[in-house]
Amino acid sequence: MTPLKFVFMGTPIFALPAFDSMITAGHEPLCVYSQPPRPAGRGRTSRNGPMIEAAKARNVQSRTPKTLKDIHETQSFLSLAPDVAVVAAYGLILPKAVLEAPRLGCINIHASLLPRWRGAAPIQRSIMACDRGTGITIMHMDKGLDTGPILAQHEICIGSDDAGRLHDRLAKVGAEMIVETLEKMEAGNILEMPQPESGATYASRLSAEDERLDWHRPSIELECQVRGLSPRPGAHFTFAGERWKVLSATVKSAPSRTKPGYVLDDQLTVACATGAIQPSKVQRPGRRPMSTSEALRGTPIPPGTQLG
Question: What are phi and psi of 269, to 5 degrees?
Fold first, then answer.
């Protein structure tokens, strides 16, 4: 395959395997686009994202515009004259001029089986919805939000994965798929499939309300919520005015007619609307993640406690 000159547009670590795979396959990176540095850590100092650091390590130029709608930013992109732009969790809207500039278009690596879970948080939302499977969609971008025609899809089983493990699996699959898909596109050996009208769902950004454990929900749903929010930002409950994050949990049975939020034993098994969940790893404010038994040795939550 003839090497392609490409612009890579991505912000979080999810994008990094695809960027590396493109270079390993012999394609030429012209520029990396990522969102501007953000405050991070205890000191809230401004830090580059992983894609900017990767670009520096590879001696590839990088840009971090706040928007691509500015005429100067648009012209800067057009001046690169890429064969293709590869987009992976970039987070900024691409104007029409940018979408149409590359010869092969702007190609998106999306972490769901579109049209299910269009939007910002497909990995977390798929687990939180207790989906059995998800996957990667390689899509030719249009002006809509993850609405463009599908070039390739690959399905995987979610199983017992939390968001962290599923993220890593999907990033690896996406990195493999993008190289294969571009090879077929360049050879004219690929068929674009419009997304079906039915089955579309929206993966909205996570909110503070998403993180709160509501014991009035079934235990199976809460276990999915815990996995979908682990390791970050973490589902939580409050005890004695302190927020306890639950990073992993197991579904358990519970006596019938037990009030939701009632602590059933000395292992922090908590009754839900149906069944119960037993946290196995928790994290208290300012402390490291630890086993529930270790946390309870420091601060017991006795059986009979009613959690809000």
Answer: -75, 125
